[in-house]
Amino acid sequence: MSTLSNNPDAVPEQALPEPLLGQLRDSVQQVLSTMVDARCDGCEGAHGEQLRIQAMVDFQGAHAGTLSLACDDDGAASLARGLLMLAPEDPLGPEEIEDALKECANMVAGVLKTRAFGADGDARLSVPRLVVAPLASNDGLWWRVQAGALVVGLRRAS
Amino acid sequence: MNKLLIVDDSSTMRKIIMRVLRQAEISVDNILEAGNGVEGMQQLLSNPDIALVLSDVNMPEMNGLDFVKEIRKSHTKEKLPVIMVTTESGQGLLANALEEGANGYVCKPFTPETIRSALEPYCG
Asked: pLDDT tens-digit profile of A65-80?
């Protein structure tokens, strides 16, 4: 997961209670299975330093924190192609990849908000943003998207 | 349907909606796009024959709720159907959107069937 949250008081996700981790896992799975036309499987973490494209959405309010979705180059391209239903030979630019990652993070955050905090929980979502930097930690929930990797993490503000 | 306007700050989501409209076999002659409520209002002014609007909620510059408010202020657009497409599924927020004049909503992630059901009443 990302450790690049702007909030210095953010708590590493190892501290997340199991119900919240389960809700995060289910949220990612719901978005991937509904919107991404690509093979996505859970996998163990590895090579976090290759995951250098990260989309982030902040939760503000009583349930403050940051959700991050990080990919390696192959994972990011596979996710974008899956969302946009593009064939391997269709052109895909870096801006399309970045926007697709942000939108995917946005959807996961929206689903997680409802699952974890209730439909009217006090958590407002920020507009998603992108950070291009190597993933600093291998922690997080890992998926394999086609040939690439996807890691989703959550940090809570203390 | 002649013209449909999709308002979303994500170009990915605009493309996904266009693809889903095709999958749902919803016939639209022309699909217009806007990246936020301000651009959406400009499109509505330039294209008075837009028959339906699909709008995100969480957008920069002018969000979806303010966009609906602006539409309903207009004498010529007071009955224009507006469907919100949003990741925010809070009942309070959705009730707000309906109070401001939205005709319905679709929560992301969605399937083609969900979009078809939401748009069917306006695709006569």
From this structure: 889 998 888 889 999 9
Q: Could you say which of B10, B86, B109 has the minimum Cβ distance to residue A34? A: B109
User: Domain extents for chain B?
Assistant: 3-122
Angle, CA of B28, B29 and B35, to the nearest 5°: 75
Q: Which residues sit opposite B52 in a β-bridge?
A: B4
CB pairs under 8 A between A and B: 67
- Both tokens of A140, joined, read 């997080």
| CATH architecture of the region B3-122 | 3-Layer(aba) Sandwich (3.40)
- Nearest CB to A125; choose among B10, B16, B87: B87
ipTM of this predicted complex? 0.84
> In 3D, which of B79, B78, B83, B81 has the Cα closest to residue B118?
B83
Task: Map out the domains of chain A with their CATH numbers.
Answer: 10-157 (3.40.1550.10)
**In DSSP terms, which residues pair with B104 in a beta bridge?**
B83
Summarised one tens digit per residue, pLDDT across range A3-45 is 233 344 444 444 567 788 889 989 999 999 898 877 777 766 6
